Amino acid sequence: MPLKALVMAIWSAMHPMAPSLPDAHEIADAIVIAVSQDAAPPVFGSREEDAAVMAYYALRESWLRKHVVGDGGRSFGVWQENSRTGRADVVTQARAWLVLLHEGARICPANPAAPLSGGCQAAARLAARRVTKALELLELAKRTLAAADASEPLVPARAVTSFPQTGRRAIASTDPVRSRRAAICNQPISLQQPIN
After folding, report:
1. Are strands 75-76 and 168-171 parallel, antiparallel or unpaired?
2. Contact present, 174 and 13 (Cβ < 8 Å)
3. Any idea of the CA torsion for 102, 105, 106, 110, to the nearest 10 degrees?
């Protein structure tokens, strides 16, 4: 499965509008380049898993903005890195983040992403939650893309939605377009309310 499609599907699962953000495609391409060209073995077991963790951190750290400044002016770019790498082009940022992830695997083997979140001890729980969530989203993205390829209907767990205005129940999809379409189609239309 193409890495870029997985990255975009992970972002879509995190927030339906994330893949349409202005820098999203460039950041996804940078993740694919950095992970695909990495000479070191994957930190989390596969290139897909490393890409998933990078994608999750990119959205959480910068909301997919390549020139964002944070931490009181001390962190820069997609992954909130130091000024030298954080102000570089997006591919350089991605490669630098991956180097730091490999260093994290060396110094914190039980929790390689912890140094990227604030330290082996100080950010252990935050990093563990982020990695766990990223890997869960990767599995969801794989299932979603496989179902789309097979043209099978998506019926994820916890998919029943109630519409309070009508009392109708519907199966919601993990596909943001289908979910939005279902939400729009199941809303009653009132002549007194403007239609969006």
Report:
1. unpaired
2. yes
3. 180
Q: Is 193 helix (H, G, I), strand (E, B) or coil?
A: coil
**How far is residue 146's CA from residue 136's CA, in Å, rounded to a whole number?**
15
Q: How far is CA 32 from the centre of its chain?
A: 13
The answer to whether the CB of 159 falls within 8 A of the CB of 147 is no
d(Cα 3, Cα 184) in Å, to the nearest integer? 31
**114 Cβ contact partners less than 8 Å away, ≥ 6 residues apart:** 104, 108, 120, 121, 122, 123, 124, 126, 127, 128
Q: Average pLDDT, stretch 64-86? A: 91
Query: Which residues lie closer than 8 Å to 141 by C-beta, 6 or more apart?
Result: 5, 6, 9, 10, 13, 52
Global pTM value: 0.75
Q: How far apart are CA 42 and CA 102, in angstroms?
A: 8
- pLDDT digits 0-9 by tens, 88-102: 999 999 999 999 999
